[in-house]
Design goal:
The complex is a heterodimer. Chain A has helices at 6-10, 26-39, 59-73, 75-81, 91-102, and strands spanning 2-5, 47-50, 82-85. Chain A is mainly alpha-helical. Chain A has one domain (2-102). In chain A, strands 1-2-3 form a three-stranded parallel β-sheet. In chain A, α2 runs parallel beside α3. Helices cover 43% and strands 17% of the residues of chain B. Chain B has a six-stranded antiparallel β-sheet with strand order 6-7-8-11-9-10, sandwiched between helices. The longest helix of chain B has 22 residues, at 7-28. Chain B starts with 6 loop residues before the first helix and ends with a strand. The chains are: A mainly alpha, B alpha/beta. Chain A binds chain B through residues 11, 13-18, 20-25, 54-61, 63, 67, 88-89, 99, 102-104, and chain B through 173-177, 179-180, 183, 194-195, 197-202, 205-206, 208-209, 212-213, 296-297, 300-301, 304.
Chain lengths: 105, 347
């Protein structure tokens, strides 16, 4: 199954919004991890994002990563193709879905 | 082909050379001054500083007994205002801290920030000082890391996790490594698991990002944040202080048209209108579309921090920014203004 373990494949210490803000930004995650895998998804395939194992997920990181993806592909497609898993902080999933639904260009 | 210099060229060259020489003499040699040439403010200030430093003439400035921006905001800010005024005037100062009975790190951070700003602006200044005679204050000053940033004979204590604090650290970017260190420190002191400090990590990165993106003017070359963390053994809690010396929340938030008119009118003396700075801070915390970028998906950091405060994850959230003072039960502005924003909270 297509999946991204953020803490292992990207970093356990996510940073701010843009690359210019510092290391491990949401923009960097979207461009280097999320976007390549998302683009390679076939018609009925889904991408599972595993959020456990990190120190935390700053609001601006999440908004830029997932909201930014929505600003490219639209909320409907992103919500349809992404699945989330967070045993450590289940409320994070709703938070991310909120950013996807409210993302505006 | 060799250029032939005729008489006209030679005359003109001689005339220009003579003018230049005259100008040089008038400028640097007082006996050739035919008229009084007004010196610039910078030159005057430089000369005054050099004169006073050469004669070891330092103006004493006695720090308030309660030297704390947190608990004695007005007096401490007014003291800093005096320091800056003296520096800008070219007066070397003797910073007398002997009588300090209460000292908090926010004050030291703010003082370091002022010194750095002056240094960066290439404003020369002369400052000497004494350390507090009170043992607690002296120890705190030494342990804070203050002497890392100033020339002194004192040595810093080592930063280690056995210590009860993380010394003042300075940064410009959203630094995940610093945030991680602070979270590790919190986990070890309060015996928490990683899941319990996720929100703290969020707060740290949001404050750093806000500083990078919104706090400073676009032309400002200094974009520093300062952070200090201390474990309070008696209360089994950890206190965090975060400072930036940017424009301040009330200055950088997006204002409504009505507020903008009110702020213009408020500058006219004797007309007591205008939105209070504390109201701007509260409004930014509540997420009332205050992002300076005006973009709908931005400006979510402060509301998130406020939600952590509201649900009890962080306690005693206090924010001082410009004349705004946000704390529980306080919604009045202070008389003096802080250049930047200080956040205090406890876990």
């Amino acid at each position: 199954m297509n999946q991204i373990m953020v803490a292992k494949e990207f970093s356990s210490i996510p940073g701010g919004r843009y690359k210019t803000d510092g290391d491990y930004s949401g923009e960097e995650f979207r461009e280097n991890c999320l976007l390549p895998k998302f683009k390679n998804l076939k018609e009925n395939e889904k991408l599972l994002i595993i959020l456990d194992g990190a120190y935390g997920y700053p609001t601006s990181f999440l908004e830029e990563a997932f909201g930014g993806l929505t600003r490219i592909f639209g909320a409907e497609i992103v919500l349809k193709k992404l699945d989330f898993k967070s045993d450590e902080e289940p409320s994070l999933i709703d938070e991310i879905k909120g950013y996807i639904k409210n993302a505006k260009s | 082909m060799k250029k032939v210099k005729n008489k006209i060229w030679l005359d003109r060259h001689a005339r220009n050379k003579f003018r230049k020489e005259l100008k040089r003499r008038y400028r640097y040699d007082e006996k050739y001054y035919p008229i009084y040439i007004e010196q610039s403010k910078t030159t005057k200030r430089k000369k005054r500083l050099q004169y006073k430093l050469s004669r070891n003439k330092y103006d004493p400035l006695i720090a308030p007994e309660n030297f704390s921006l947190y608990s004695n905001t007005e007096e401490t800010l007014s003291f800093f205002y005096d320091i800056e005024k003296k520096f800008k005037h070219g007066d070397p100062i003797y910073f007398d801290m002997k009588n300090i009975k209460v000292l908090t790190i926010d004050t030291i951070m703010y003082f370091l920030a002022i010194l750095k700003r002056l240094k960066h602006a290439r404003i020369e200044y002369g400052v000497k000082g004494s350390i507090p005679s009170e043992k607690n204050c002296k120890d705190l000053l030494k342990a804070s890391g203050f002497f890392k940033y100033v020339n002194s004979g004192y040595k810093n204590k080592d930063l280690s996790y056995e210590s009860d604090m993380i010394q003042i650290s300075i940064g410009q970017n959203a630094n995940p490594y610093s945030a991680k260190n602070i979270c590790d420190f919190t986990m070890s002191k309060l015996n928490l698991k990683r899941a319990a400090i996720r929100s703290l990590y969020d707060v740290m990165i949001e404050l750093m990002s806000n500083t990078k993106q919104h706090a400073y003017d676009i032309r400002d070359t200094i974009r520093d944040w300062y952070i200090f963390v201390r474990y309070i053994f008696e209360k089994k809690s950890i206190r965090f202080i975060f400072l930036d010396t940017g424009e301040g929340i009330p200055t950088t938030v997006k204002r409504t048209g009505f507020e903008y008119i009110k702020s213009i009118v408020a500058n006219v003396p004797l007309i007591p209108v205008g939105t209070k700075h504390t109201e701007y801070i509260t409004s930014a915390l509540k997420g009332e579309l205050r992002s300076s970028t005006g973009e709908l998906h931005r400006g979510k950091g402060l509301p998130k921090i406020y939600s952590f405060y509201k649900n009890g994850y962080i306690k005693k959230l206090t924010i001082i920014s410009n004349s705004g003072y946000f704390a529980e039960g306080i919604d009045n502005d202070i008389d003096n203004s802080l250049n930047g924003t200080i956040y205090y909270w406890e876990i």
